[in-house]
Structure formats: structure tokens, C-alpha cells
Amino acid sequence: MNIRTSRGRIASGAVAALAVGALALGASPASAAAADGYVSGTGTFYDDFADEGILSTSAHSTSNATCLWQIILYAEGVKESNGTLYDWTDIDGKFGANTKYATQQLQKKWGLTQDGIVGKKTFGSADDKWNASTRAGELEYRAYSSHTATRYKLRYHGDRYYFDFYRTASGKYRFYHNGTWMYASYNGTGCAA
86: exposed, middle or buried (C-beta count within 10 Å: 0-12, 13-18, 19+)? Predict the structure, then answer.
């Protein structure tokens, strides 16, 4: 066995390991929920949205997850780019310039960075704990069911409207839009105005 060759292999292996480690540190971690393909959660639902994937004009820009976010914008009653309230016809599952603008308005209202990107802080602000005595907060528990598709019924309270949706036994979120129940998927869309 050649000692120089063994040392060379060890040195090459160490350099390769350092390079892989540097790449792993530099890469942003993928959200577990986005990797699973759905807005989802486990345990208490008051913190489900804080670990979701990113929604923006370049990330999951056409998806049912975007559609769910647009329903939140509608419920909050934020303004869209033409100065009117974000309305039902704006909910199309496409994260374009108008949705970005409305997201910035909601971020401003919530005291967040106004970048128009729905990241962990922005999405996480949408599931603040509901306080039944003060009737404040965004997310309220409504009911429990043994049915796997509608395990937890939840209500989102916006400043303008509220809407009900479900978290299934597998943790996936479902909502009703334009006569259809759909999963809040990052990869598909059935949401159209």
C-alpha cells in the first residue's frame, strides 16, 4: 500500500467533505410543508403556518396555497394595487403583482417587512392564537370530527370577513372556493376566479 496515495485520498476526502458542508450551510433549508406539497400541520394548529413554504411571484406562484393566501388577503380587507379592496375576483391562485401589492399592505398592517413575499413570519402571523374571551386573533377552533377529511374545523377571522376551513387527519389544509373543496397544495391549482 502506498502511503502517499492513502494520504492523498484522505486529504481529497477531507476537502470534499468541507465543500459539501459549506454548500449545506449556504443553502437555505426547504420547508417541510412545501416539500410535502401541502400547507399542513401537526399538534396544535396555532403554529401551523409559521413553518410553511414561501409564496411569491417566483415561488409557488400558481398554486392552491397561493389561493388560500389570497382568501386571507380578502378576509383582511387590504387594498389592492388600484386602491380598491382586495375582492373575490382577485382570488385566482396566481401570485402576481396585485397579490404582491396586497401582501405588502397586510405586512404593513401587521408591522412586518413589506417585501410582498409570504415567508415564515408573514404566513405565521396569520395563525395567531384566538382568544375566546376577547374575541381577538386570527385563527379559532370551531369543531372536531372523526371524519378524516374534516378532522379540525377552523375559522380565520380577518378584519373584514371570516372563513372556515379544515385540517385533515393527515394534517393537510382544505378550503372551499367557487363550489369546490380543495387542498392547499403548493404544486397544483384548481382555484380560479
Answer: buried
